[in-house]
Automatic annotation (TrEMBL):
Subcellular location: Bacterial flagellum
InterPro entries to which the protein is assigned, alphabetical: Flagell_FlgL, Flagellin, Flagellin_C, Flagellin_N
GO MF term set: structural molecule activity
Transmembrane portions of the chain: none
Organism of this sequence: Proteiniclasticum aestuarii
Highest rank taxon of the organism: Bacteria
Name recorded for this polypeptide: Flagellar hook-associated protein FlgL
Length: 310
């Protein structure tokens, strides 16, 4: 087989270009710090990196959801603590008012404080977090509680299909396929079953207590009204315990999310980031090879007699 100058030149240029491209690849990896910069570099690796990056971003969103839910439940827990304190104070007023030796002035003072507690309860139950009312269930943009014409606290939050609100809460996705429900329905705070008369709703109960204090009905105060306030106290404590259980689960989810995020970030770094020491050595080797190629080409491509004839 006859080897011509054109054959030598062609082979040399192809090899030289291949070495130059390889050196450029190492140079890009060193300058960007990434193993790949476009899909054609390594399609399988790029697909894996994109999947891991998507998982990391999704996990970061779950972290935001968890932090938002933690702030929500923490605010709700503080509000429920004040609700419980208010109900306990109302119970003390009932016990004090059941004393038959009180004067009209004393009973009037107790009634005035009882009416004040109704407004205090409204303010607490209309607490908001980040501009959203925490006890309005799915209706978070408007205050869920008002005082009606009878002077009783009334729930005006989310009420599906015009019926009783039931046990509707707010759902938060805290992991892939994992949703937690935050108790957020104020109706379940102010309403209990089994109370006497219309005292199932705490607003009506407070109005009836005020009337009993004003009229000096000591038997009603020490009887049904005291029993009904105890039912509402137990209900508020149960609601707060549910909120505490949700908070504890969110704390555990936050720790697990942080561990998963660290693990995925490390895996993404191993797949995507360049080993600078290794790449620097490979780049130095390829630069030496490229320089050797240039020197070899200068020796084998010497002008021949045919070049002068042309």
């Amino acid at each position: 087989m006859r080897i011509t100058n054109n054959t030598l030149t062609g082979n040399y240029l192809r090899n030289l270009n291949r070495n130059l491209k390889q050196m450029q690849k190492y140079q890009n990896q060193l300058s960007s710090g990434k193993e790949v910069s476009r899909p054609s570099d390594n399609p399988m690796l790029v697909a894996r990196v994109m999947q891991l990056d998507g998982n990391v971003r999704m996990n970061e969103q779950y972290e935001k959801n968890i932090n938002d839910a933690l702030g929500w439940t923490d605010t709700a827990d503080g509000a429920m603590n004040e609700v419980t304190s208010t109900l306990q104070r109302a119970r003390e007023l009932i016990i004090y008012g059941a004393n038959g030796t009180l004067s009209d002035t004393d009973r009037a003072a107790l009634k005035d404080e009882m009416d004040t507690l109704q407004g205090q309860l409204q303010q607490v139950l209309n607490s908001n977090y980040d501009g959203r009312y925490i006890f309005g269930s799915l209706k978070t943009t408007e205050p869920p509680f008002t005082i009606n014409d009878l002077g009783a606290l009334e729930y005006k939050g989310y009420n599906p299909a015009g019926g009783e609100p039931g046990h509707i809460g707010l759902d938060r996705e805290i992991a892939k396929g994992v949703t937690i429900t935050i108790p957020a329905n104020g109706y379940n705070i102010v309403h209990v079953e089994g109370a006497s008369g219309d005292n199932n709703d705490i607003g009506n109960l407070f109005v009836n207590i005020s009337k009993a204090l004003e009229d000096g009905k000591t038997e009603a105060l020490s009887g049904d009204l005291l029993g009904d306030i105890d039912k509402h106290l137990d209900n508020s404590i149960r609601f707060r315990s549910k909120m505490g259980a949700v908070y504890n689960r969110l704390e555990s989810a936050k720790e697990r999310n942080a561990a998963e995020n660290l693990s995925m970030t490390e895996l993404l770094s191993k797949s995507e980031d360049t080993d600078l020491a290794e790449k620097m050595m490979e780049f130095s080797t390829m630069r030496t090879v490229y320089q050797a190629s240039l020197q070899t080409g200068a020796q084998i491509l010497q002008p021949s007699l045919l070049d002068y004839i042309r």
